[in-house]
Amino acid sequence: MSHLMNTYARLPVAFSHGNGSWITDTKGKVYLDALSGIAVSTLGHNHPELVAAIAAQAGRLLHTSNLYRMPQQELLADKLSALAGMDEVFFCNSGCEANEAAIKLARFFGHQQGIDSPAIIVMEKAFHGRTMATLSATGNRKTQAGFEPLVSGFVRVTYNDLEAVRAIAEHNKNVVAVMIEIVQGEGGINIANVEFQRGLRQICDENGWLLICDEVQCGMGRTGTWFGFQHAGIRPDVVTLAKGLGGGVPVGACLTSGKAAGLFKPGNHGSTFGGNQLATTAALTTIEVIEKDQLIANAEAVGRAIREDLALALSGTSGIVEIRGQGLMIGIELDRPCGELVTRGLDAGLLINVTADKVVRLLPPLTFSAEEGRELVARLSVLIRDFLAA
Ligand SMILES: *Cc1c(COP(=O)(O)O)cnc(C)c1O
To answer: Candidates 217, 220, 245, 273: which one to mutate for ligand 1, based on the most atoms within 8 Å of Cβ?
Structure first.
């Protein structure tokens, strides 16, 4: 028996190596990877430039700690700030840590304005992580059960319901921020509509609140723009990143601008590993390749083609509720629980995911080619049709 703590219902497969969008298991079977390790391996597997950059950095320095300056970290902060239109960056190692930084920052911001019990508006079906604060911000009772008492200071509203946010603005003077995923990942690929995003920006401005965008899953090119909020042309005060940022190397970031910048001083927050040489080199190289190979345009075009081809291939199939998404962040909602499709996918040589019980989730590498997109649609549409017919 394994000594691993039983925190995952693991699939009975292990992989030995990968190449681009293809990954091979320990028995030699090859799979098309339409999940990228949950939006992490954005350059696909074994990308030659990323491998070379990581290897070269490992041969120089892995880590020195944030007691010292790190040129790579400064370069990455410059680059991310330019891409996102932000001012400052704090580096950590994961999505929940990036969100913890954002939550601490929002509370700190509130206290500076004399609000002793600052609150953050969060969304139904949100996912922000598994630490106590991010779990409390998450909108899923099941993942919270058994871990009470939760961290206080979160007020929940329905996604895309601007009136609910306005109502809270009138009555709750403790609110200091709104936290939102522009495209909810774990919650089932739900997209914040443009009016909602712009409305939130306006309400935050009117009330002096921070707008925090959790772009841990939908950021870094996934939706066909660098960041999800760029579709609506808004600028958040705080942006959190992780998953795809390092192309597979753990790294997270919390970006701030305007009134959210300049708040933290030495001693207010920190991380031992955060943004070390290995992690920031991986992120810099990932961004370089995304730009050089125009992978954001690729994500937009290939993602659109996949959604259109899926709609065609599944048209007239009863049991399909909706096919939705942006770029290479795609959900196919069925009218019934469909977790079983994941193992059926393995049999068919396809890595996919099911989230929110009924939503098939696709998060292919940003390097996914048009041909791989067609192969994905061919394999997946058969799986879904057979599943729904059974
Ligand atoms: C995955 C995810 C997180 C948590 O990231 P970890 O690296 O697992 O801590 C937070 N927010 C969103 C939107 C995510 O998709």
So the answer is: 217
If you average pLDDT over residues 316-325, what whole number do you get?
97
Amino acid at 219: G
3-state secondary structure of 122: strand
Pairing of strands 210-214, 30-33: unpaired
Share of the chain above pLDDT 70, in %: 100
The per-residue pLDDT for 390 is: 86
How far apart are alpha carbons 157 and 169 in whole angstroms? Answer: 12
Q: Token digits for 148?
A: 């009470």
SS3 327: coil
- Which residue has 């680059």 as its token pair? 79
H or E element, residue 254: strand 252-256
Q: What is the whole-number distance in angstroms between the Cα of residue 14 and the centre of ligand 1?
A: 23
Query: What residues flank ligand 1, with Cβ below 6 Å?
Result: 94-96, 99, 127-129, 181, 185-186, 214, 216-217, 242-243
Cα 386 to middle of ligand 1, angstroms: 32
368-384 pLDDT tens trace: 999 999 999 999 999 99
Average pLDDT, the chain: 98
Compute the average pLDDT of residues 211-230: 98
Distance in Å, CA 185 to ligand 1 centroid: 9
What domains, with CATH codes, occur in the chain? 15-33+294-389 (3.90.1150.10), 51-292 (3.40.640.10)
- Which atom of ligand 1 is nearest to 130's Cα? 9
| 218 in Cβ contact with 228 (< 8 Å) | yes
- CA of 314 from ligand 1 middle (Å) equals 31
Instruction: Mention every residue, 6+ apart, whose C-beta is less than 8 A from residue 244.
Output: 36, 39, 40, 42, 219, 220, 221, 222, 286, 366
Q: What confidence category does residue 1 fall into, taking pLDDT thresholds of 50, 70 and 90?
A: low
